[in-house]
Design brief:
The protein is mostly helical and about 110 residues long. It contains six helices and no strands. It is elongated and about 60 Å long. The model has no long low-confidence stretch (mean pLDDT about 90).
Length: about 110
């Protein structure tokens, strides 16, 4: 039984490692380009799916957060839009439009 448990654990770890490798192989720039095209065509839900995937890979990418904000706003998903814009400001606190963005966040939350 101990051996079976060890084999199951080894198989589980192997699957996890393969999944991590697959995520690393994904081209984030291509995801962002595709999402940008979708957003321009007002296909916000599809764009968000790609951007969320890209965001999981590159958590500190401010461009992705700004694009998420715009696409969520395009769907009227104000809370999600506000959260994405907040994450953007965490990454780019000295953005020249930071004060305007903070006001937008307040508006979206109310």
């Amino acid at each position: 039984r101990q051996r079976e448990a060890e084999q199951r654990e080894a198989a589980r770890q192997e699957v996890e490692e393969e999944e991590e490798e697959e995520e690393e192989e994904i081209d984030v720039d291509e995801l962002v380009r595709q999402a940008q095209r979708l957003g321009l065509r007002r296909q916000h839900s599809e764009a968000i799916e790609l951007l969320e995937q890209a965001s999981r890979i590159e958590r500190r990418n401010s461009r992705i957060q700004m694009m998420l904000y715009r696409n969520y706003a395009g769907l009227g998903r104000n809370r999600n839009a506000a959260s994405a814009l907040e994450r953007y400001l965490e990454l780019r606190p000295n953005d020249p439009n930071a004060d305007e963005y903070r006001e937008t966040i307040e508006t979206l939350r109310n």
